[in-house]
TrEMBL record:
GO molecular function: actin filament binding; cadherin binding
Family: Belongs to the vinculin/alpha-catenin family.
Protein name (Swiss-Prot/TrEMBL): Alpha-catulin
A GO cellular component annotation in the UniProt record: cytoplasm
Lineage, top ranks: Eukaryota, Metazoa, Chordata, Craniata, Vertebrata
Biological source species: Cyprinus carpio carpio
InterPro entries the UniProt entry points to: Alpha-catenin/vinculin-like_sf (IPR036723), Alpha_catenin (IPR001033), CTNNAL1 (IPR030045), Vinculin/catenin (IPR006077)
UniProt key word Cytoplasm: yes
């Protein structure tokens, strides 16, 4: 808000507004003040007009009074901002009072007879009060926004401390405890940064924030499996390398978030994107077309130098080993045509200047048109080459044969084959990295350029991580956790390929003029149907659900009897919840909201767990039995609420969104109880074992199942419900558990 919307003065407060919430808060105030100031000089002072002016002035004064009360409360709670915030609140209150006095014109007699200054007689005083009010209110809002930034920094610092603790753990028990804390801190950080991302005004910052948050989300699961692999195989060098890469990437992403919210870089220098060919062409055309208005606004040498810089960037296309001979020749030819047309333009331009012409001549106008057309033809060809290359690569990698071969070779313990396929994956990585770089050149908007850069970095990092995970599996081919770890990194690669397909569509949409701006969300949930706020809400819930499934898996790791009935039921419940999480990312088997609701309806495994618990506690002591039954009742309530919600018919976008939200919330409730019950039941079993009692022993619990055994048929997908499929989600649940030593 650099200037006043009215013509009387500049309301610049000297503070940069970074967020939409601050800007939206100021808009009504600006509107009301503009109404007061921008009256006609010879406005007819009727009773109706005077009452309207007084009403607006009073509304401003009352609103400012309420606003100041909140600001003063914030100042009282934040000692480091107390003085600055207090001064801004004082100035806002004073300005609000001045505006109320100047607009106190309830009657014609009062307006003209008492000699007081009013909005009609003291326009300068009104403008001065308006400036002070906008300046002080803006300052209060910006200071309040600083508190939000401090919260994000504080949350990041907590995550960093826990991250360092996780990196140093040496026992699995310690890891489970710290990772649970880490999960909670990551959820808090995700909430704060998600809100900030949606609130940022700058599209580039929103895109960068989306990229950093996507890295953190994916790396959370990688950190879990990579750390467990290191704990299981502490002397394995490839496992250590794999783990260190994950921790390093998380730290860089956390640092990037702070750079965005504080608008600074750790090194102090400003962050600037490399200039893309699209941006270079756009700027070049602006300068060339600007010659119509002024022949002397830019030098001939500057235009020529800019063209050569642009031509140099096309070498990324022509020097590529993956560009065909025909494509290379076409690009070179178009570059030559552009040079020729620009040279002709400069000649006609200099001739016009020599004639002291005040505007472009007809000959120069023709050269401007030809130059702009030639550079547009070049851009079109570069777009065709980059998009065509990306489309071919996506088709080539759609079967994921190299990833499958790495998994198979690692599982066979064949290090030589892993090395061979690693070389192939490296080639694919280089192709994808270069393709992302070319897409960045022609993407069309800065947010899309940022997304291309993020994709390039992701392929560059994940490629070597897949290889190190495959080497670890080859060294320990019977290790379930090493296999799971490789699966997680392969999934990240596949997920990034899906992101490239979405990115391609967005780039084509921009090129063809079908859309105006990038959504800045790398992964959205039903993006065509949900607005930004709904997408953020669902994404947050999905992350919370994912972290709860990790907590369940970590707790199950501690059980000695991995075939225990409670373990098996909790595995399946966790797997179902994980499929919901994948739905929030637009992945997995659940493709529509109907799929999600169908899954929510089928809760027999949860009810089986309830029946199992009720039957199993009969022989427990009163205190233990009451505790288990109390939690079982909570579990039952959550299951029933989920079923009722899933079966309730709804219509309309808003109602469907609320149903999705409720389904995931209720599933979170179920997992929360499961996470709480698992360690309690585990301790009771160990206690019973030590006392040589059959009460709640593994054998006793298996005999008391009440027909709740999960059949092999169900797990293989032949059961009646939609969750028995041995899908990616099921593998995620069943492979998460650290193999027993």
């Amino acid at each position: 808000m650099a200037s006043s919307p009215c013509g009387d003065g500049n309301f610049d407060c000297g503070l940069q507004i970074q967020t939409r919430s601050v800007e939206q808060t100021l808009i009504p105030l600006v509107s009301q003040i503009t109404t007061l100031i921008n009256h006609k000089d010879k406005l007819k002072k009727t009773e109706k007009t005077l009452r309207a002016v007084q009403r607006v002035g009073q509304a401003v004064s009352v609103a400012v009074g309420r606003f100041v009360v909140v600001g003063e409360a914030i100042a009282a709670e934040n000692e480091d901002l107390k003085d600055e915030m207090g001064l801004a609140c004082f100035e806002a209150r004073r300005a609000g009072t001045a505006i109320a006095q100047l607009t106190d014109v309830s009657s014609l007699e009062q307006c003209e007879g008492d000699g007081r200054s009013t909005v009609f007689s003291d326009r300068t005083g009104m403008v001065k009060a308006a400036r002070m009010l906008l300046s002080s209110v803006t300052k209060v809002l910006v200071l309040a926004d600083c508190i939000v930034i401090k919260q994000i920094i504080s949350s990041r610092n907590k995550v960093l401390v826990t991250l360092e603790q996780l990196e140093r753990v040496s026992t699995f028990q310690e890891f489970v405890q710290i990772f649970s804390q880490f999960g909670n801190e990551m959820v808090e950080f995700a909430h704060l940064t998600g809100d900030r991302q949606n609130d940022l005004k700058d599209e580039k910052k929103r895109a960068r924030m989306a990229a950093a948050r996507a890295v953190l989300e994916k790396c959370t699961m990688m950190l879990l499996t990579a750390s467990k692999t290191c704990l299981r195989h502490p002397d394995c060098e490839s496992a250590r390398i794999n783990k260190e890469a994950v921790f390093q990437r998380m730290r860089l992403a956390l640092e990037q978030v702070i750079e965005i919210v504080t608008d600074t870089r750790s090194g102090g220098e400003a962050r600037a994107l490399p200039v893309s060919i699209y941006a270079g062409i756009k700027d070049f055309k602006v300068k060339v077309e600007g010659l119509r208005d002024s022949l002397y606004c830019v030098s001939c040498e500057a235009v020529a130098a800019q063209l050569e810089a642009l031509m140099e960037k096309t070498e990324d296309f022509t020097d590529s080993a993956y560009t065909s001979h025909e494509q290379r020749e076409t690009i070179i030819q178009l570059c030559q045509i552009t040079r020729q047309e620009t040279k002709q333009l400069i000649n006609t331009w200099r001739h016009a200047q020599s004639l002291k012409a005040k505007e472009a001549t007809d000959e120069m106008e023709l050269s401007i048109l030809k130059t702009c057309q030639s550079v547009s033809d070049l851009r079109r060809e570069l777009h065709r080459v980059a998009v065509g290359r990306a489309t071919e690569l996506l088709k080539l990698h759609s079967d994921h044969l190299v990833l499958q071969a790495l998994k198979a070779s690692g599982g066979d313990g064949n290090l030589e084959a892993v090395a061979d396929y690693a070389g192939t994956l490296n080639e694919h990585k280089e192709q994808l990295v270069e393709t992302c770089r070319l897409l960045c050149h022609i993407s069309g908007t800065e947010p899309l350029e940022i997304t291309c850069i993020h994709a390039e970095e992701t392929f560059r990092v994940i490629g070597p991580q897949i290889i190190s995970a495959a080497q670890t599996l080859a060294l320990h081919p019977t290790s379930k956790i090493a296999k799971e770890n490789l699966d997680v990194f392969c999934e990240a690669w596949e997920s990034q390929l899906c992101d490239i397909a979405i990115l391609l569509k967005e780039i084509n949409d921009v090129f063809e003029g079908r859309r105006g701006k990038h959504s800045a969300n790398l992964k959205t949930v039903k993006a065509a149907k949900l607005d930004a706020e709904e997408q953020t809400t669902i994404a947050k819930l999905g992350l919370e659900l994912c972290l709860l499934t990790s907590d369940v898996d970590s707790e199950v790791e501690r059980w000695d009897e991995q075939d225990h009935e409670m373990v098996r039921l909790c595995q399946i419940i966790s797997s179902m919840a994980y499929s919901m999480y994948l739905f929030t990312r637009g992945e997995g088997l659940l493709k529509t909201t109907l799929d999600l609701f169908h899954q929510a309806e089928v809760r027999q495994h949860s009810f089986s767990l309830i029946g199992f618990l009720i039957e199993s506690v009969r022989s427990l002591l009163d205190e233990d039995r009451i505790l288990i039954l109390s939690e079982t009742e909570k579990l039952s309530d959550a299951c029933q609420q989920l079923q009722v919600c899933a079966k309730t018919p709804v219509q309309g976008k808003s109602a469907i969104f609320q149903k999705v939200d409720s389904s995931i919330q209720n599933t979170k409730g179920i997992l929360t109880v499961v996470v709480y019950l698992l360690p309690i039941c585990y301790k009771l079993i160990r206690k019973c074992k030590s006392e040589c009692s059959c009460v709640a022993s593994p054998q006793h619990w298996r005999e008391k199942q009440l027909n709740t055994t999960v059949s092999e048929e169900t797990l293989n997908g032949n059961g009646s419900n939609g969750f028995g499929v041995k899908s990616l989600e099921q593998h995620m649940a069943s492979l998460t558990f650290l193999e027993s030593k």
